[in-house]
Specification:
Layout: H1 2-9, H2 14-33, H3 37-45, H4 49-77, H5 79-99, H6 103-117, H7 121-131, H8 134-165, H9 167-188, H10 205-210, H11 212-216, H12 219-235, H13 241-250, H14 254-278, H15 284-301, H16 308-336, H17 342-371, H18 375-403
Length: about 425
């Protein structure tokens, strides 16, 4: 299986392969830190999950602004500059957060980092679409996802052990990963922004930003993102609330939580291609229903179980849902986007992750602190049921639109 993946990987242009490798380095640093971020805040500053939720809200508000600006500027000035700026800002910001002992200053740095650190997110996704022909774009996102999850397999295990020594090591590792990635991008990856056609005047910065109106007018796309955002609210608890819940409620050790997340990532690395191949012949919205059903079972289980081995079974179930939901949603978003608005379409796709972070973790913190920890997972199951109904309704709306689209996987690449 892996030999066939390797052979198909060689079919892609070198800049794309470098982008995949650079993404692995960048995300390795992120996955050393991020799974333990909420736990660090509660331990280091002595606060509850409600305050953690406020911090995520501040960070996400900055992320929405940064992603919006970055998507527009990526279409105006190019992908490379925005990606470099975001990576350098992330590296410097991580070091600053690791050294701060005042919660208010920590909030300020998080808000600034949210803006600057996410400038490069839409540019990275637009690069995939720029570098690959349309029939290989969804597959390219799949390869990028495998790289991310390979780093997520290694990162939490190393992070769990580093966290038992000093949380500062996690912030330093994240910064090093971002800065190494920036050097790779600077020296190896060329600019990928499509050239403006001779008969088409180049947009001004203001007009580029105003161009978001055209994305928002795509009602089917916005409806899809709105329903998908419900699943994002549930999924984000994996890397925020779950670590605190298992550690504080069930006494689950920090290093074991690293292994739990690594199980999630390893499953994606091993099975993502196979699962994507199996779902290729089905309508995207139907697959979103199937994936969300697995979310409902997996996340909901945490409200009813207490045995450690069941934590791993629940993780296996929700990971199956993740391997369906995330690549299908990314492929659908990319297929909606016109060539000259890719940065902005992918930025709006990023909003459907960032906006739930404004209130999703905060809401989970309020529920956890006031209604009871298990209610986080009861409500996660209810939200998944709502999303399933939404995708079922969208299936009829999008049927004609997706009829002519390239399906999520490319069969000859997925022969694994």
């Amino acid at each position: 299986m892996f030999s066939k993946i390797k052979n198909s990987y060689h079919e892609y242009p070198n800049p794309f392969k470098v982008l995949v490798f650079a993404t692995f380095i960048d995300r390795l640093g992120s996955f050393l830190l991020f799974p333990f971020f909420a736990l660090y805040i509660t331990d280091h500053f002595g606060v509850g999950m409600t305050q953690v939720g406020f911090l995520f809200m501040v960070f996400s508000a900055g992320s929405i602004i940064g992603s919006g600006i970055g998507g527009a500027l990526a279409d105006k000035y190019g992908r490379r500059a925005m990606l470099l700026l975001g990576l350098v800002a992330s590296g410097v910001g991580s070091i600053a957060m690791g050294l701060i002992n005042d919660l208010n200053i920590f909030f300020i740095i998080a808000s600034i980092l949210g803006v600057l650190g996410d400038l490069g997110g839409p540019a990275r996704q637009a690069m995939v679409a720029d570098l690959l022909p349309k029939e290989k774009q969804a597959e390219g996102f799949g390869l990028l996802r495998v790289a991310v999850n390979l780093s997520a397999t290694i990162g939490p295990i190393l992070g769990g052990f580093l966290a038992t020594q000093s949380y500062l090591f996690l912030f330093i590792a994240d910064a090093v990963g971002s800065l190494i990635t920036a050097m790779i991008v600077y020296f190896v990856i060329p600019e990928t922004k499509p050239q403006v056609k001779d008969n088409k005047p180049e947009e001004t910065v203001i007009k580029t930003i105003i161009g978001y109106k055209e994305v928002l007018k795509d009602r089917v796309y916005i409806l899809f993102l709105s329903v998908s955002a419900i699943t994002v609210i549930v999924y984000m608890q994996l890397n925020s609330t779950l670590s605190v819940f298992l550690n504080k409620v069930h006494g689950f050790p920090i290093e074991n939580f690293g292994f739990l997340l690594s199980l999630n990532a390893l499953m994606v690395v091993v099975f993502q291609f196979w699962i994507t191949k199996k779902i290729s012949k089905y309508a995207p919205m139907k697959m979103m229903i199937v994936g969300t059903l697995f979310y409902m079972i997996g996340f909901g289980m945490y409200g009813f179980i207490s045995a450690p081995y069941l934590f791993y079974i629940a993780m296996v179930i929700l990971t199956i849902g993740e391997m369906v939901v995330i690549p299908v949603s990314l492929g659908a978003a990319a297929s909606f986007a016109p060539e000259d608005k890719r940065g902005r379409y992918m930025a709006v796709f990023g909003f459907h992750w960032s906006i739930p972070n404004l209130f999703g973790v905060l809401a989970a913190g309020l529920v956890m602190d006031h209604l009871g920890p298990n209610w986080v997972w009861y409500l996660a199951g209810i939200l998944c049921m709502m999303a399933i109904v939404g995708f079922w309704l969208l299936n009829g709306v999008t049927k004609d639109r997706f009829k002519e689209q390239i399906k999520i996987p490319i069969e000859e690449v997925h022969q694994v």
